Amino acid sequence: MDDLDDLLEVGDRVLARARGGEQVEAVVIRGVDTEIKVYEGEVESLSSAQSQGVGIRVILDGKQGFAYAATLDDGSLAETLSEARDNASFGTSDEFQGLAEPDGVPIPDLDLYREALVGYPIDRKIEMALELERAVRAADPRISGIESAEYVDSRFEGAIASTTGVRNAGRETSCYLSTYAMATEAGETQTGFGFSVGREPGDLDIAKVAAEAGRRATRLLGATKPASERMTVVLDPWVTAQFLALLGYTLNGESVLKGRSLFAERLGDEVAAPIVTLVDDPTDPASFTATDTDGEGLACRRNVLIAGGTLDRFVHNAYTARRAGTCSTGSAVRGGFKSTPGVGTQAVTLLPGGRSQAELVSDVGEGLVVQDVSGLHSGVNPVSGDFSTGAEGLRIRGGELAEPLREFTIASTLQRMLLDVSAIGNDLEWLPMSAAGVSIVIRDVTISGT
Amino acid sequence: MIEEAVISRVLSGALRTGGDFAEIFAEDKRSSSAYLDDGKVEELTSGRDRGAGIRVVVGDTTGFAHTADLTEEGLTAAARAAAAAARGGDGGTRVVALTRQEVPRGYEVQTYPEAVAKADKVELLVQANEAARSEASVISQVAASYADSHRRILVANSDGLMSTDDAVRTLFSVSCVATGDTGLQTGRESVGHTVGFELFDLHDVQALASRAAARAVTKLSARPAPSGEMPVVIASGGGGVMFHEACGHGLEADLVAKGASVFKGRVGESVASPLVTLVDDGTMAREWGFFAIDDEGHPAQRNVLIQDGMLSDYMWDLLRSRKEGRGSSGNGRRQSYQHLPMVRMTNTYLLAGHDDPEDIVASTDSGVYVKHLGGGQVNTATGDFVFGMTEAYLIEKGEITEPLREGNLIGNGPQVLQLIDAVGNDFAMGPPGTCGKDGQGVPVGDGVPTLRVQRLTVGGTAS
Fold first, then answer.
1. How far apart are CA A174 and CA A427, in angstroms?
2. Could you identify which of A303, A342, A407, B271 might form a hypothetical disulfide with B311, taking C-beta atoms 3.0 to 4.6 angstroms apart as the criterion?
């Protein structure tokens, strides 16, 4: 952790200015990001960006204030601290307010940093993006255009220090390739995406990205709008992951304490089908959002939220845990240095079952595979549980994939969908988000079309 | 922010390796926010974001770098990085002579947020909380949020352009939860304008809070939304997000150029019902998507996109318009100095028609009346789009009847635009929005009069 000492030292400089009676926490981050977009065999844009910043939280008499700045010189640190302190004076006093205190849980060693990424030549990153574009074009003669083909990587370093004794630092690298392809036949265009994620460029699989984008776009060609009816659906891993990330909101301690969770009073109840075991585990290094410590500097840990269909646990940060009379689950999350920590699931996954997607399709017999959804932010209300999204996919007839479908919605409620899960696939895959994907079968979903 | 002589030298330096075009975008943005939840003022936040993004264009390639260091050294280093990224050859020396453009601001801020005591901002939250809770006993939770930003920008480029803007935005929102036998329901209201603290002379936060609370309470008795195709009436002022998604994004020239829009090659053709005249207008003073110059230094413009159903033009930024040998339409925007600009909407709205809004509902035998819209999403290549309804009612025999639970509506842009068969005379702008594209969020406005779509798929669960 040698080269992170300077970040910790910035934190120490902030803490040295703390006054008696107040709690102070400083989060210091530094990052280098590269983004390469190619179009028709040329680099369309290449951005290389270095960023840094500090976020300072002050708690005095149970009141919280926060301020941030993107410069780390002494003058700026002093001004930011004093602004956070001033902001605290306007808060409402809350007996549970307070910074996290070290809880003795050892910080896992996750190995999320790769020198191989840091030293990787820019020319080769460009070549990967260009090769991806060529591979997508070659994937199928019906590929008519490529809206985007890009390589993105990031090196992130962060430190957190507080007057309550938190002091640690970490770093990680990540990269991904992604593409959005168009396929055209008989004047009709459909689209499909593909991506591959890793910690270093060597982890990325160009052929997989290209094949996936080509397959997704071409298999929707000729899609029509289905009639409205209820049926069994198979959610593609990509769709399941988005569903799980939404579900995470209902299981976070803040939603629960503030009366915004439909599961608030239901610990110990059967809220899902018995095959459903939902785990939040940011200590799994395979997950894209793996992290050794949470947004308050406590060790991350594996939390089982739903065990065999029974609601077992909510996730908490220091504040919500104190208020709920329990311990932090290491689930403080923050959106960079510009905000205070909230609570959230960090890497949720379902325990996989034993069947492939093709076997699930065969078991279902008659139904629909949902390849993609849209409007998750506009048609799903995680407080009421109402669930309605735009969708596209393929009909299942006689246990086989049949004609493509588009311009329809799928609707149910989050509560019912959990209870209606009838099978979980074995195709677990970590995606570039805070959840893993796996094929799942849900009964009795309303399809709205014509 | 930066001396003119320094800008000239940095731009010249950026072109030394053979760039065709170089630009500095400098930004100094101060933000403050206050948040009340669960009856408590949870936090006040202040922040400052200050830096510059430099891009260098060589042929079809753009190199971009940004820095938080606005000294000549910092800018020169960023210019060098951007030029290296664009991979120019040997360009020799080009002198950049800047001409300072003075673009009228269009609106004079009355009260800058920095001049307002924090206690006054907090007081608004407290008032909103009390008003929402006193609306009904079933209101079980209230969150209120205040946010302001003061953003100064400077844009200078190797064409000699140099221009500045200074914009203040103020936003207030209230979210309520109502609890009843049917579970939890939510109601949200927000108001935001490109103005200072005088926003609260124009808008009463207590009334806003009461409306948010009433929306949550109404939905406690809501029944599941229907499933399938039916006539849909959209209320005036409920939000123009349908047009933003149905055709707005598809008319962005960057997507058109890549063939990723169903509206490609359709200028001069009928793309909508003759009742549709759609405008994107960055000059609309005080609106959420208003500015004096866009983030490439081009003055804001009022652009007619669709005139009486005919597609008149796309929206353009600098790069795309240079390539086509035409002018920008003032739609080059970016989230911050850390981002490259692209084609973005500003305030997008449908002009009022001649129908009486009451007649539109009365002449609808059965369908759905969407009073308040949520967000939306579109696939511009296929034209399929969705948008959410956060307050909606059944229309039965020409009358608005029972409230409906939330859900998305889905349609295909080019088809839905042709199916608009009534446009009211009651235009109103909707609430402020944040439009997301390629990972960047920018403030946008939208507005519609009452209108009817003959057929749209409602994504509920009731048959």
1. 23
2. B271
B301 Cβ neighbours under 8 A, 6+ residues apart = B281, B282, B283, B329, B330
Task: Looking at the structure, tell me whether residues B184 and B88 fall in a common domain.
Answer: no
Q: Which residues of B touch A47 (CB under 8 A)?
A: 63-66, 85, 340
CB contact under 8 A, A384 and B186: yes
Per the structure, the complete domain to which residue B169 belongs is given by: 113-220
Cβ-based contacts of A51 with chain B (< 8 Å): 68, 338
Supply φ then ψ for residue B15, to 5 degrees.
Answer: -95, 0
Burial of B340 (0-12, 13-18, 19+ CB in 10 A): buried
The answer to whether residues B295 and B192 belong to one domain is no
The distance of B337 to chain A (nearest Cα, Å) reads 11
ipTM greater than 0.90, yes or no?
yes
| Residue in B40, B258, B377 nearest the CB of A375 | B377
Mean pLDDT of successive 10-residue stretches along chain B, which has 463 residues: 93 90 96 96 91 93 92 93 79 73 89 95 98 97 98 96 96 97 94 98 97 97 96 90 94 96 97 98 97 97 98 97 95 96 97 97 97 94 95 97 96 97 97 94 97 97 86
Distance CA A238, CA A258 (A): 30
What architecture is the A2-218 domain classified under in CATH?
A: 2-Layer Sandwich (3.30)
Are the C-beta atoms of B172 and B124 separated by less than 8 Å? Answer: yes
Does A145 contact B259 at a Cβ distance shorter than 8 Å? yes
- Closest by Cβ to A381, choosing from B38, B186, B461: B186
Is residue B108 in a domain? no
Q: Do A67 and B86 touch (CB under 8 A)?
A: no
On whether both B343 and B442 belong to a single domain, the answer is yes
Contact A213, B412 (CB under 8 A): no
Structure tokens at A295: 């947004």
- Best B368, B391, B461 residue to mutate vs chain A (most A CBs within 10 Å): B461
Listed by start position, the domains of chain A span: 2-218, 223-450
- Residues 6+ away with beta carbon under 8 Å from A196: A176, A177, A178, A203, A204, A205, A206, A208, A209
Same domain as B211, residue B162: yes
Chain B positions touching A412 (Cβ under 8 A) are 461
